[in-house]
Design goal:
Radius of gyration: 33 Å
Number of strands: 0
Main location: cytoplasm
Number of helices: 22
Subcellular location: Cytoplasm
GO molecular function, one term: DNA binding
Protein name: Helix-turn-helix domain-containing protein
Keywords: Cytoplasm, Repeat, TPR repeat
Length: about 425
């Protein structure tokens, strides 16, 4: 990665396109003028910059990006790679990325990237169990934030120190830093509800460890309240929308805008998750139709996670799962799923109960329990008759007719087929 001056960018792009100075100059300027720009001996006017961007097929913004901005962007990449390396335990690689970032930080005197690198050095030393050195780096990081009034950036430092202290059983210091984190929200410096919920959670745990049960209960309730709101994304989105409206009414447009963006992102995520859930569900059905039940189960389980709180879709997913488990001879999983469906489907959900009895019948048949299979068909048929669900009654009779035919009970089978046909004809006539 390299930081380029404007002239170096022009020259690099010209070389990429295999163009000569004369090619670039065209009839607009002289090759000498282009050469002066490339050697940084002359700054082009905006008209010439527009011409160069058009001729070299690249954006004006690319040419106008300052060296400091480029260095800042490169440092951001190195810091991201360093953090990833720490997370996966590749400490030497992390150290090298931090060193690469330091090179640009020192050359271009970058303030925020320097603070970020100090934070990463702290993380790295904590991973190596060098706590004194780690806290020194984090202190230096906070000095930069304080000097330049970046109060909102304190949170990562405070939380890292607090969690480290809690891991080392230095509980009073841990609690102190968790409260420093909480204060950022109380003072209105930060508004990230997810982070605040985490702060409450860790305070509840820390107070429990020191034996202060009243404080632990207080922060457990606060944490639970936040997480309850956030666990239902649509409700959380509405909550953020209300916060945006409240701030708008109070004339705090910056905060209102921030909450509005957060809310919009939540609703967009909900839409994407809904689409993915539908895709996974459909893939499951396709594999089920292809009799590739292992693959079907994988996709049904994925859709189950994505549907989360959509009870109706969760019922459908589990109906398919129970049957797939039956085909795979996974008896325990099949019956466990059927028991779950017994709890999910309410007594007054007549169509839901009919579907459940039909799946139960199929599963019992797959496990060679023919009496159980027939009994569940009869239970489904009774509901359909009692509630005058003619279409379902006809379908169930067809299933029973097929069952009796396979058992050699031709007379019973034909009677059921005849009744089923009569219902269908009657229904067709009514329509």
């Amino acid at each position: 990665m390299e930081v380029l001056s404007l002239g170096e960018k022009v020259k690099k792009r010209r070389k990429e396109l295999n163009m000569t100075l004369k090619d670039v100059a065209g009839n607009r300027v002289t090759p000498g003028q282009i050469s002066l720009v490339e050697s940084s001996k002359s700054n082009p006017s905006m008209d010439l910059l527009d011409y160069l961007a058009e001729t070299l097929d690249i954006s004006v913004e690319y040419f106008m990006e300052s060296e400091n901005t480029q260095a800042d962007r490169i440092c951001e990449y190195f810091s991201e790679m360093a953090e990833i390396s720490i997370e996966i335990g590749e400490f030497e690689k992390a150290s090298k990325y931090i060193e690469k970032g330091d090179h640009y930080i020192n050359q271009y005197n970058l303030i925020l990237p320097k603070a970020k690198n100090l934070y990463l050095k702290g993380m790295l030393e904590i991973s190596r169990r060098n706590f004194t050195k780690a806290f020194d780096y984090l202190f230096q990081c906070n000095v930069i934030y304080s000097t330049h009034n970046y109060k909102g950036s304190y949170i990562d430092n405070f939380m890292l120190v607090a969690k480290t202290c809690m891991d080392q059983e230095s509980l009073p210091m841990a609690i102190s830093y968790f409260h420093k984190s909480e204060a950022l929200f109380v003072e209105g410096i930060l508004t990230d509800e997810i982070m605040l919920a985490k702060v409450y959670f860790y305070l509840a745990v820390a107070y429990k460890k020191v034996g202060n049960l009243e404080k632990s209960k207080e922060y457990t309730a606060k944490s639970n309240e936040k997480f309850e709101i956030m666990s239902d994304k649509r409700s959380y989105g509405k909550f953020l929308t209300r916060l945006a409206e409240k701030n708008e009414m109070e004339g705090n447009f910056e905060e209102a805008s921030k909450y509005a963006k957060m809310s919009l992102q939540i609703f967009r995520t909900c839409g994407e998750e809904s689409e993915m859930a539908e895709i996974e569900m459909t893939l499951g059905k396709l594999y089920e139709d292809f009799e590739r039940y292992e693959e079907a189960v994988i996709h049904f389980r994925k859709s189950e996670v994505l549907y989360n709180r959509n009870q109706e879709m969760l019922k459908e997913v589990n109906l398919h799962l129970a049957e797939c488990y039956g085909h795979l001879k996974r008896e325990e999983d099949a019956y466990e799923t059927l028991n779950l469906l017994d709890r999910m489907i309410l007594e007054e959900d007549f169509l839901g109960n009919i579907k459940l009895y039909l799946v139960k019948s199929k599963v019992e048949s797959l496990f060679k329990n023919m009496r159980g299979a027939v009994n569940n068909l009869i239970l489904a048929l009774n509901i359909a008759r009692e509630k005058k669900l003619k279409e379902e009654e006809s379908k169930i009779m067809l299933l029973m007719a097929k069952f009796y035919l396979e058992k050699g009970k031709n007379v019973d089978s034909y009677k059921l087929l005849e009744k089923s046909m009569n219902i269908m004809l009657q229904e067709g006539g009514d329509k």
